[in-house]
Every structure is written in structure tokens, then in C-alpha cells.
Write a structure and sequence with these properties.
The chain has 18 helices and eleven strands.
């Protein structure tokens, strides 16, 4: 090549902007490359939308896609291929065919029939990876969520919209064996050949060019990442297989999107991979703590989502710990928080009789940071701390900057507001 694969792919994405937003054009592109080079559409899709690292594509694959976009879009300069490939490469690649390592059919799933076009079964990560490496699993941009327009160096390209934070969270749960199996959804192409054996309760796919992953793409990506780092990894997902046309597939995705969404602050309380929630869980189950059984999601001493954010911000944020070190920190923080809450509620028993609001909770947890980091505080210092907490809790609703608490999430701004308020309280205690 006259340049490297990465630069050529960047050029392809830049030049194909008008193609990827036109369904007819992209189907024409897939068809041309498939017929001329035997390259499946899902490989072309991966290259166009950045679904795979650039260095995973061969020079031949890059050549075929570049030739394809020039064929489909007349506005792209005809000599684009010549800018990136030598005469020898062009001569070698123009008649080459892609070798597809296909799956062996039939594919047989033990499945429950829901309707004539919908079945429920299961699939292991290892079987998923077999399909992945045979390029059998695709992401259909026509039915999935909108592509994301990204401008790089003044040039617009389109990419799959991926929530990397969600992928990392699922990846971590899969690695820790704490992920609870849920459903992936595969849509068979309209021309797929299949039967359902009512007696054996089996879905038998006799032929299909691939499957579109209609729901569960982030879970699929997370599973791929874990498997790539550990080929012994396996996990079983529930699998829904459907045979919907494009219109019905879109209806299905819309329906799935209508599920009731938790408020962000409520959702936090359900993430049991989060160290702060593990601390809260331990304290709540400690019969020696005055708040034993009172730290529940829907009722009790405080809003658990807010408490989780506070513990995370004040105790764990910024600490780079491996899993063993984190486990030690969780145990230490749990024990310390139990003792601290006992000290506070023994001195201020009213806390046991009513729920504290977010601002009052922020005051309580603000002092826990000092208590936690300064082990062995003198009795006199502890008595002064309790007096300061009692005064601050009674007056916190009057402090300036209460807007920082409106969203429920206690971030850096809210902590700064509390810090300033506590310093003001020192003048009165």
C-alpha cells in the first residue's frame, strides 16, 4: 500500500458519508461488494461504522470496500483506489474472492414457540463467538437505533452509537460472575429457511445468511471483550429468535424502548457491583449497627441512591485498587461506617425516628470521610464532631447553594457547597 490500512479506512469513512445515510445506496454497496468480491455485508458494515479495530481488516478487504464506494457514488473521485494502492496490488486484488468460513447447517435450538415468528431458547458465549467469527451476527442500521454523527478534523463520519460505560459495566459483571442472564434478540433474514418441530420443541434453521442482533448489542460487545481476553470464558444468555420484516422489527425495538426507565439516582442503588452499595449492604445487615435493617431502597433512614453516590465520591473516588485491595477497603469502610453511625445516632437519637433529606445526609456523610481517614480520634474531637453534625443538620436547609442538590446526585459542586457550609458552622459550635 502507498499508505497504511488505518489511513485508508479513515478515507473510506470520510468519502462514504452520503452512502451510509441512504438505505438504497448502502444496499447497492453491499450487493456490489458481495457479488464482485464475495465479501459479506456485515464485514463492510464493520468497516464503515468503526465496529471493529482498523488493524483487524486486510488490505484486500480495504481495497474491495474502497472500490465499492467509488462504484456506488459518482461524486467520489475514480482514482481514489490508485492513491492508496500500488499497481501490483490493484492487479492482484481486482479478481480476488473473499473466502467465507461458513457455519454448518442446520442450526438446531431447543426452543419454546411463542408464535409463528418468535421463539425463546438459550445460547452460550462460546456459541456466540462461533457465530461472530463466521461473520454470522450483524447490526442492521436500518432497524437499530440511530447512527451517531461524529466530526473529526472537520470531516463528518457515522458510527454506531455505543454507550462505552454500559459495555464496561456489563464486562465487569461478566468477569466477576455477577451478571444475571437476560435476553439477546436475533432476527432471522426474510429469506431464511427454517422449521419448528412441535414434537421435539426444536427450532431448526436450515439456511440463513446471518442474523441481525436487534436487542442486546451492548451485552454482546461486552461478552466479546471478555472472551477476547479469556478464551476459557463462557456464560449462558436467554435468546429470543424472531423472524420479523423491517417494519415489525422497528416496532419491536420501539416497544422495548418504552420500558419504564429508572431515574438515574434510583438506578445507582441497584448496581451491586458498585463498592459503595456493597458497603451499604454490609452495614444494613450488621445487627450491631443502630441502623440495622433501616437502609432499604424504598424506605428507612435515607435515600440509598444518594448515600451510594456520597460514599463513592467521598471514600472511593480516585483510588486505583485491584479487586483484592477493593475488597479490603469495602470491609474496612463497612466496619467504620457502622461504628460512625452508632456514634451519631446515640448522640442524636432523633435520626432513628425520621428519614433524613439529601442535604442532611450529605452533612452526615461529609463528616464520615474525616472519621474514616482519621482513625483514633480523641474523645474530645469526636464529641465536637457530633455537636457540629447536630448543628449543621438543623441548619443545612438554610445554606446557600441548595440548587446543587436538586438532581439528587451529589457531585463535586454539592460537596464544595457542603464544605463551605461546614466551615461557616464552626463559628457557632
Amino acid at each position: 500500500m502507498k499508505t497504511n490500512v488505518r489511513e485508508a479506512i479513515i478515507e473510506i469513512r470520510k468519502q462514504s458519508v452520503n452512502i451510509v445515510i441512504n438505505n438504497a445506496k448502502i444496499e447497492e454497496l453491499y450487493s456490489y461488494i458481495d457479488k464482485k468480491y464475495n465479501i459479506p455485508g456485515n464485514l463492510v458494515f464493520d468497516m464503515l461504522f468503526g465496529n471493529k479495530a482498523n488493524n483487524k481488516f486486510s488490505r484486500f478487504e480495504v481495497f474491495a470496500v474502497m472500490d465499492g464506494i467509488c462504484h456506488v457514488d459518482d461524486s467520489i473521485e475514480n482514482d481514489l483506489v490508485n492513491k492508496y494502492f500500488t499497481d501490483q496490488e490493484i492487479e492482484a486484488f481486482k479478481n480476488e474472492k473473499f473466502e467465507i468460513d461458513t457455519l454448518e447447517f442446520p442450526l438446531v435450538f431447543d426452543a419454546i414457540k411463542i408464535s409463528d415468528d418468535q421463539w425463546i431458547t438459550k445460547i452460550t458465549v462460546r456459541d456466540l463467538m462461533k457465530m461472530r467469527f463466521k461473520r454470522f451476527i450483524t447490526y442492521n442500521a436500518n432497524t437499530q437505533r440511530q447512527l451517531k454523527k461524529v466530526v473529526k478534523n472537520g470531516e463528518a463520519v457515522y458510527q454506531i452509537s455505543i454507550n462505552q460505560k454500559a459495555v464496561k459495566s456489563i464486562e465487569k459483571a461478566l468477569k466477576n460472575n455477577s451478571f444475571i442472564a437476560n435476553t439477546l434478540t436475533f432476527n432471522l433474514p426474510e429469506d431464511a429457511l427454517f422449521t419448528y418441530d412441535e414434537e421435539k420443541k426444536q427450532l431448526i434453521i436450515e439456511k440463513a445468511s446471518g442474523v441481525d442482533i436487534v436487542d442486546g448489542y451492548h451485552r454482546y460487545l461486552a461478552a466479546c471483550k471478555v472472551f477476547d481476553n479469556n478464551h476459557d470464558f463462557d456464560f449462558t444468555f436467554e435468546l429470543r429468535i424472531i423472524h420479523f420484516d423491517e417494519f415489525r422489527a422497528k416496532e419491536f425495538i420501539f416497544q422495548e424502548d418504552q420500558k419504564t426507565q429508572m431515574k438515574r439516582i434510583a438506578s445507582v442503588a441497584y448496581d451491586m457491583n458498585r463498592a459503595s452499595n456493597q458497603v451499604i449492604g454490609r452495614v444494613n445487615k450488621n445487627p450491631m449497627c443502630n441502623l440495622y435493617g433501616m437502609l432499604s431502597i424504598n424506605s428507612g433512614f435515607c435515600d440509598i441512591g444518594v448515600a451510594s453516590n456520597l460514599i463513592d465520591s467521598l471514600i472511593f473516588k480516585g483510588k486505583k485498587l485491584d479487586q483484592a485491595e477493593l475488597n479490603v477497603e469495602i470491609v474496612k469502610a463497612s466496619r467504620s461506617l457502622s461504628n460512625y453511625l452508632n456514634m451519631v445516632t446515640d448522640a442524636i437519637p432523633e435520626f432513628l425516628q425520621s428519614k433524613v433529606n439529601d442535604r442532611q445526609l450529605a452533612v452526615v456523610m461529609y463528616f464520615f470521610k474525616e472519621y474514616y481517614e482519621k482513625e483514633g480520634m480523641s474523645p474530645e474531637d469526636l464529641r465536637h464532631m457530633v455537636k457540629l453534625i447536630e448543628y449543621a443538620v438543623k441548619h443545612v436547609d438554610e445554606m446557600k447553594g441548595n440548587n446543587a442538590f436538586k438532581t439528587g446526585k451529589i457531585g463535586i459542586t454539592a460537596v464544595k457547597v457542603i464544605d463551605k457550609f461546614i466551615k461557616e458552622c464552626l463559628d457557632y459550635v
